[in-house]
Design a protein that fits this description.
The protein is an all-alpha fold. The chain starts with a helix and ends with a helix.
């Protein structure tokens, strides 16, 4: 739920639908693998270089806090 809350916050700030940030499948994989580096984050399905640059630091901070 923390991953969905962060996604919703980012989507609201940018005025885009939440799925444009990351899909549910990506959030589920992220929450199970809890990547701690940019390289590990890129290994998550649905994460590319652009999304890493836009959202990586925020989601990695969340992963590292769990």
């Amino acid at each position: 739920e923390k991953f969905r809350a962060l996604r919703a916050q980012l989507a609201n700030n940018q005025g885009v639908p939440a799925y444009m940030i990351f899909g549910d499948k990506t959030l589920i994989e992220m929450s199970s693998k809890l990547p701690s580096t940019h390289e590990e984050f890129l290994d998550i399905s649905g994460v590319g270089q652009m999304k890493l640059e836009k959202y990586g630091d925020q989601f990695l901070e969340l992963c590292n806090s769990l």
